[in-house]
């Protein structure tokens, strides 16, 4: 059985191979190829194109696609697995994605071709959850603004939220999307003494100390709203002008998930008009942010360059996590299912 893994600037060839090499002990031939980009910023530009327009938006080189018909499995992180790739890989049985989202895979076409698609849920959940807590504190306590001012020789103590600088203790925090990341954040927030509510139509069961509510209720009641839903065509602009209008005037919105979940134009308008107190954003419609973008002119926002999930641990552990899933499938475990509802046959 042959496996092709496509490395990139975040998971390099050595890390990719080291994470998957144990599969060779059970008869899987692992070959690693590199999807070359000049730097991480260039890779993120391609990744954003793919996230917003699908896997057909960026083509892989002929070198990456040579002899695809000899592979039974393809493992990628950000590299697109388009219809063209699937058609070339005539013996393909499984596509594995080294993250939770699978926007870079032509998933419906894979289903038509009876090719199973696996993701790696939770692989960077802790990285994003920890970063999100940093963003919350940075925005509500003016940490980034203070740092910037001091670096520019200004001893500043007057901020957009100076009339209402909160503590997290006793505040209501709404989590939109209650998967691995949302649940980790709930635990952190409970340690701070926050009241946590969550919205997630796909969450089943209970989580101690967290009340599941509808989206409108969450937006109306929360002092802070943090977004962690999966980005799909159904969740595009999940937070739009209407949703922003439901939030408290002293509320703060945090998005470390996907840019398309929040209407960026509507958010900028709400911040300019002081409809909400502030925001902390790690993901944007255009990356890098254009120099003339209105978001750069706002004082009531903390922004970072799409780095929430970028930790050494998250990247290096991803191939190992998926390798263990594949080993389980090959060993005959029955409780592993493809996210596109195709029977896994290796």
UniProtKB/TrEMBL annotation:
One of the GO biological process terms: amino acid biosynthetic process
Keywords: Amino-acid biosynthesis, NAD, Oxidoreductase
Domain D-isomer specific 2-hydroxyacid dehydrogenase catalytic residue range list: 58-340
KW Cell division (keyword) present: no
Pfam families found in the cross-reference section: 2-Hacid_dh, 2-Hacid_dh_C
D-isomer specific 2-hydroxyacid dehydrogenase NAD-binding domain location: 133-308
Record-stated family: Belongs to the D-isomer specific 2-hydroxyacid dehydrogenase family.
PANTHER family: D-ISOMER SPECIFIC 2-HYDROXYACID DEHYDROGENASE FAMILY PROTEIN (AFU_ORTHOLOGUE AFUA_6G10090)
Protein name per its UniProtKB record: 2-hydroxyacid dehydrogenase
């Amino acid at each position: 059985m042959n496996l092709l893994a496509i490395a990139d600037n975040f998971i390099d060839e050595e890390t990719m191979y080291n994470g998957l090499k144990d599969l060779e002990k059970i008869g899987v031939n692992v070959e690693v190829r590199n999807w070359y980009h000049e730097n991480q910023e260039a890779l993120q530009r391609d990744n954003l194109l793919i996230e917003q327009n699908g896997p057909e938006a960026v083509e892989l080189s002929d070198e990456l696609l040579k002899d695809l018909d000899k592979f039974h499995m393809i493992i990628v992180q950000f590299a697109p697995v388009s219809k063209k790739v699937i058609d070339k890989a005539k013996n393909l049985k499984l596509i594995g994605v080294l993250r939770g989202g699978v926007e870079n895979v032509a998933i419906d076409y894979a289903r038509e071709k009876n090719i199973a698609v696996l993701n790696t849920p939770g692989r960077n959940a802790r990285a994003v959850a920890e970063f999100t807590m940093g963003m919350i504190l940075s925005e509500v306590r003016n940490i980034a603004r203070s740092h910037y001012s001091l670096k520019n020789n200004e001893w500043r103590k007057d901020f957009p939220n100076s009339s209402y600088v909160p503590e997290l203790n006793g505040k209501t925090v709404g989590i939109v999307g209650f998967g691995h990341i949302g649940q980790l954040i709930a635990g952190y927030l409970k340690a701070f003494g926050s009241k946590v509510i969550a919205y997630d139509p796909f969450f089943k069961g209970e989580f101690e100390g967290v009340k599941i509510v509808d989206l409108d209720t969450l937006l109306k009641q929360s002092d802070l709203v943090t977004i962690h839903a999966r980005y799909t065509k159904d969740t595009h602009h999940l937070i739009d002008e209407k949703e922003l209008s439901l939030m408290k005037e002293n509320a703060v919105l945090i998005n470390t998930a996907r840019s398309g979940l929040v209407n960026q134009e509507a958010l900028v308008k709400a911040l300019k008009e002081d409809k909400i107190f502030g925001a902390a954003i790690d993901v944007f419609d255009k990356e890098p942010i254009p120099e003339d973008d209105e978001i750069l002119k706002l004082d009531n926002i903390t922004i970072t360059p799409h780095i929430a999930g970028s930790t050494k641990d998250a990247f290096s552990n991803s191939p190992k996590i998926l390798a263990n899933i594949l080993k389980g499938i090959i060993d005959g475990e029955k409780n592993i299912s493809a996210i596109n509802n195709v029977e896994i046959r290796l």
